[in-house]
Write a structure and sequence with these properties.
heterodimer, A: MetI-like fold, 13 helices, B: MetI-like fold, two-stranded antiparallel sheet
Chain lengths: 274, 290
């Protein structure tokens, strides 16, 4: 039975929560608003009402070729995620369904690789990339992103797969299902939601990764993180254009993120909080 | 029913992940360790050879080293303090019945999905800029002198930006934990006359303890490596005022071309991260046993 709540309490909580929410969201909101202002408007002092120009979006594309880093971000984040899934699904599957005494140790060890600070291996990775001609290449950065997110992908898949009851396999076998039928009709439908959630979270993480993507690229393979970082030395009026570029860079992932709240908690705590 | 066959199959299925991660962990780290004992500067190819512990001494005696360690600590602890206390407070607030809870939740978690360069540049230019930022507008509205955040309080400014990015994470996880608190326990405590403060200390906090540990440890892993936020705002300055250990290593390696020195710094960073990792592994490992 729920506790009785007076309307007054509810109204107070509503006002307080909306105030906090809007303050936290404000920098994002203000960026979106500013992207529809003209440059003189953008520096003319605080205002929440833009003149509604789309000029900045057009300028960012014509002057800075926005589509290129955007496509790089899409290719890199989706590519590295699919690659990581191809490698991780069989491994996580094996650990979830045929665990041995060492499974737990292997999982913990995999997690520990995620804790190696990126800067510690910056020098060797940079030199290796230089020697193999992988600097500023999509292939190089895809490999990098796959490797750094692989432990999280394995862990997430493992926690999802572990929830699939093993008895259901036995039941389907008793009913005379062959291995192929077992995979297609029993396992796949149960595994797909977990794989989809893992994919979603990993695309978000790869899209926002800002160490390797900035350091290992210059122009050709530069994703949005590197593209936006290049705005850090301003030339002339650029507030509104920066806002337009930023809005476009975060919008797709913001919307994906809203749909993945639950998976986020689970994925980033390695299943420790659900 | 684990036959020898299925065992072999399981090993084969795990092999790609295990081998890749093994190579990924061992090879670069071994190279860093090797370089850290070498004289190796990309600008001076003639001076190559065994350096003993020179690189470590060089890094250790550099005044920037201790400042960057200190800055790293202040950054990590500052962000942890803001996000954990803020996360508990906002989590408690969002756990109340209200109108439009789903939308407020979306507003609160949004900063987490903003890529670090965007977060840093938006805060630097639109919020904290001494001339055109919103903070300056507010200061002028009250007749105060606007603050030049990144010149006067560079490290604090970065702490604010990073805390803004991580507050949603802490809030989301603590809120999830709060919602799993048995409402009958809360009611029982209320019936027994426990006021809000007592319920918080004796019921809510013990329930949250494990989630807080997880938040602290996971954030620490990421916060030790804060990089893009510093790069696009202060570039580590003024002087070394906002240089953390990650940024110092980057500076030594790619701006100073000192491979040996940067590698020694990298090994130090690994040791620091390992101390944290040790505790995180224990916390997560315990959970696996359940």
């Amino acid at each position: 039975m729920a506790r009785s709540v007076t309307t007054r309490q509810k109204v107070i909580a509503t006002i307080a929560a909306w105030t906090v929410g809007l303050i936290i969201f404000f920098p994002i909101l203000y960026t979106i608003i500013t992207s529809f202002k003209t440059e003189p408007e953008a520096i003319a002092g605080f205002s929440l009402i833009p003149s509604g120009t789309f000029e900045n979006y057009i300028t960012v594309q014509t002057q800075r070729d926005y589509i290129k880093p955007f496509m790089n971000s899409v290719v890199l984040s989706v590519g590295s995620t699919i690659l990581a899934l191809i490698i991780a699904v069989p491994g996580a599957w094996a650990m979830a369904f045929s665990p041995t005494k060492r499974t737990k140790d292997i999982l913990m060890w995999m997690l520990s690789t995620k804790m190696m600070p990126a800067v510690a291996v910056l020098v060797p990775i940079y030199l290796m990339f230089r020697d193999f001609g992988l600097l500023d290449s999509r292939i190089g950065l895809t490999i990098m992103l796959t490797l750094i997110n692989l432990p999280i992908v394995i862990w997430m898949l493992y926690t999802y797969f572990r929830e699939i009851p093993g008895e259901i396999l036995e039941a389907s076998r008793m009913d005379g299902a062959g291995l192929w039928q077992e995979i297609v009709y029993v396992l796949t439908p149960m595994a797909v939601p977990g794989i989809a959630s893992t994919m979603l979270l990993n695309i978000i993480l790869a899209w926002n990764e800002s160490f390797w993507s900035i350091r290992l690229t210059t122009v050709e393979a530069a994703p949005l993180t590197a593209f936006i970082a290049s705005f850090s030395s301003p030339q002339g009026l650029f507030w509104a254009k920066l806002s337009a570029a930023s809005t476009m860079a975060i919008a797709p992932i913001l919307i994906l993120g809203w749909f993945s709240q639950k998976q986020l908690v689970r994925g980033l705590t390695f299943g420790a909080v659900k | 029913m684990a036959t020898q066959n299925t065992k072999t199959l399981a090993r084969l299925m795990m092999a790609p992940s295990v081998l890749l991660l093994l190579v990924w962990m061992v090879v670069p780290l071994a190279m860093t360790l090797w370089f850290s004992f070498q004289n190796y500067n990309l600008l001076d190819p003639s001076n190559v050879g065994f350096a003993g512990t020179f690189n470590y001494e060089f890094f250790y005696t550099d005044p920037a080293f201790f400042q960057s360690i200190w800055n790293t600590l202040v950054l990590v602890l500052g962000v942890l303090f803001i996000t954990v206390t803020g996360g508990i407070a906002i989590g408690l607030l969002l756990d109340q019945p209200m109108f439009g809870q789903g939308i407020v939740r979306i507003l609160v978690i949004s900063p987490f999905f903003v890529m670090p360069p965007v977060a840093a540049l938006v805060w630097k230019n639109m919020i904290m800029h001494p001339g055109y930022g919103v903070f300056a507008d507010i200061a002028r509205f009250f007749g105060l002198q606007p603050i030049d955040w990144f010149a006067q309080y560079p490290l604090f400014s970065i702490i604010i930006i990073v805390a803004w990015q991580w507050l949603p994470f802490a809030t989301l996880i603590l809120l999830t934990a709060l919602q799993s608190l048995d409402s009958e326990q809360k009611e029982a405590a209320e019936m027994d006359g426990a006021n809000f403060f007592n319920r918080f200390i004796y019921l809510v906090m013990p329930h949250l303890a494990r989630s807080i540990t997880v938040v602290v440890l996971i954030q620490t892993i990421f916060l030790l490596g804060v990089y893009a936020e510093i790069l696009v705002t202060t570039n580590g300055g003024p002087g070394y005022a906002s240089t953390n250990i990650a940024f110092l290593i980057y500076r030594t390696a790619l701006l100073g071309y000192d491979v040996g020195g940067a590698s020694a710094g990298g090994i130090i960073a690994v040791i620091l991260a390992n101390i944290v990792a040790f505790f995180l592994m224990r916390a997560v490992g315990k959970n696996l046993d359940r």
